[in-house]
Structures are given as C-alpha cells and as structure tokens.
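Continuing the series of single-chain predictions for the mutant panel. This is the parent chain; the variants come on the following pages.
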Amino acid sequence: CVVVAADASQRALEKASRLATARGIPQIAGPNAQELGARLGKPPIMVVGVRDRDLADGLVRLASEQGSMEG
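Parent structure:
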C-alpha cells in the first residue's frame, strides 16, 4: 500500500495516485508529512510505500475501518 500525507503537495498526490492506481496498489490517507516522517525517524515525508504484505494488509484494513482509504 501507499500512505499519502494529509498535507502532500498536489504534484506528489497526483504522481503517487497515478502510479498506485496503475499498479492496483491501495492508497491510504496518512498524517501530515512532518508526523509521517517523524514516525519513521526521517524528515517530513509526503508519500511512503509499504512493501511488507502483512503490514500493508493491516494498514489497509485499519484505514478501511476508519474511513481513511483514498483513490
């Protein structure tokens, strides 16, 4: 899945959405870029891909329950 920061730029949002949609990858609305980066021990991040299938499935399930799915 792909987690998109709530304050991602329009350009980043469009690019991530286009690529994820083309590959059938679920998109999740995440926290703001500062918080998303901080949770990963990084500077602000607008978009992050989750490659671990079990983790991605769990995030998608949680997002679906909370109404945070995009695309």
